[in-house]
Design brief:
18 helices, disordered N terminus, 73% helix, globular, ABC transporter involved in vitamin B12 uptake, BtuC, mainly alpha
Length: 425
């Protein structure tokens, strides 16, 4: 028996009326409250989206182990010294993060850091050039070195591994040439380079005001971003979530300020490092240039088809890596108050690459954050500090650091495999 057809029924399906509209899962998560966030957290773990969780757990474990073995490790003096010591390595690691986001590697940053420290020392100490001008020349030299290497990689087509390996040798040789026969140039304690590293704001108010300003800026930026996204009709963080994140950040910031004030105060080097991380993080996450870097690292062919100048992005990234190597080299020179034939050598290259990878930046490109440089440098610095307090040899330190680096790469590989299995890579 044929049914009577409704006069308004054309005999075709009505998807617009019957189909359920697509709903962003992030909205559902936030509507469910704590239950929704816990479910989202479990889903991310199953799909391999670990974020900064492994490195945060690593820091907790390292501090717990060394703190239980020797109470000196968790003393205000040691933690304050650690906050200064990681700055040079962390600065160079920021540049490595940029390169890793492209899925490439830069093996020359150690030599570049030593070369730029030597340039400053020779120009300022031996030739009497104004220290600010010498500092700018040294940093510009790092940018130029990175641009040269980026040109051979992006325009000529030489693999980045080969270009930077050759650069590691060439820039180290140039550093020796710049230093001359003496091989070492001592940097006076009144030099701007030494002051950048050693200056400490002794007033307790400096640490607490810095913490308050940082938390306030985070809250203002979060509320502004939420308002902008709400006006655009896209998912946004509710006020309750923003408040919770702000409280968590405030707890970390003021606890850090309290610890620093228990010793001498807020180190200028740490303050400059944090400011740099905030600025660079903004560039990567909030600007077109930053999104282009992620696009090139995630899918180079797709980036080309989207109209992105891949060669320009690659060259600029290697120039940034050279610049950050120069800045890091300046801080390392200020730490030891000299530039010598050993500057940029030793295990520096291993440490900066390890810091970026251990901090959570993927070796396979397209995923990472500049905060990886801070977290990774903190892990590396904590291991070295703890083992020095325990009186362990450099051989043991190298083996443990290498094992931690391997573990970080394994976690990254397993994470990517889980994401591919979940269809999210």
């Amino acid at each position: 028996m044929k049914r009577d057809r409704d006069p308004g029924d054309s005999g075709t399906q009505q998807p617009a009326r019957d189909a359920m509209p697509a709903v962003d899962t992030r909205l559902l998560v936030r509507e469910e409250g704590i239950k929704g966030y816990l479910g989202e957290f479990r889903r991310k773990l199953r799909s391999g989206e670990l974020g900064s969780l492994p490195v945060v757990l690593a820091v907790i474990i390292i501090w717990t182990v060394f703190g239980s073995l020797n109470s000196t490790f968790l003393s205000a003096q040691n933690l304050s010294d650690l906050s200064q010591q990681i700055v040079g390595t962390g600065m160079i690691a920021v540049g490595i993060v940029f390169v890793l986001l492209l899925g490439e590697i830069d093996l020359s940053v150690g030599s570049v850091s030593g070369l730029c420290a030597a340039i400053f020392a020779v120009l300022n100490v031996q030739n009497g050039m104004n220290q600010w001008l010498a500092l700018l020349v040294a940093i510009a030299g790092g940018a130029a070195v990175g641009l040269i290497q980026g040109f051979f990689f992006a325009r000529v087509g030489v693999p980045a591994f080969v270009v930077t390996l050759a650069g590691n040798l060439a820039w180290n040789g140039l550093m020796l040439q710049v230093l001359g026969a003496s091989g070492t140039v001592n940097i006076p304690s009144e030099s701007i380079v030494t002051k950048l590293y050693s200056t400490i704001f002794g007033s307790p108010a400096a640490s607490y005001v810095t913490a308050a300003v940082g938390v306030g800026l985070f809250l203002a930026a979060s509320l502004l971003d939420a308002g902008r996204r709400k006006a655009a009709g896209v998912p946004f963080r509710p006020v309750a979530e923003i408040a919770l994140r702000t409280v968590f950040l405030a707890a970390i910031a003021f606890a850090t300020a309290y610890i620093l004030n228990q010793y001498q105060g807020l180190p200028l080097a740490l303050l400059l490092f944090l400011i740099l991380l905030v600025l660079v993080d903004f560039v990567l996450r909030r600007t077109t240039y930053g999104r282009q870097i992620f696009a090139v690292g995630g899918n180079i062919e797709g980036a080309r088809r989207a109209g992105i100048n891949v060669a320009l992005i690659r060259m600029s990234v290697f120039s940034i890596a050279g610049t950050m190597a120069a800045v890091g080299g300046i801080f390392l020179a200020g730490q030891i108050q000299s530039a010598s034939q050993t500057s940029g050598g030793g295990n520096l290259l291993m440490n900066v690459i390890a810091a970026a990878v251990i901090g959570g930046t993927s070796l396979f490109g397209g995923r990472g954050s500049v905060w990886s440089a801070l977290l990774g440098a903190l892990v590396i610095g904590s291991i070295q500090s703890g083992m020095n307090i325990m009186g362990l040899s450099n051989a043991i330190q190298f083996m443990i650091t290498g094992a931690v680096l391997l573990a970080a790469v394994v976690v990254d590989s397993l994470s990517r495999r889980s994401q591919r299995a979940a269809g999210r890579a």
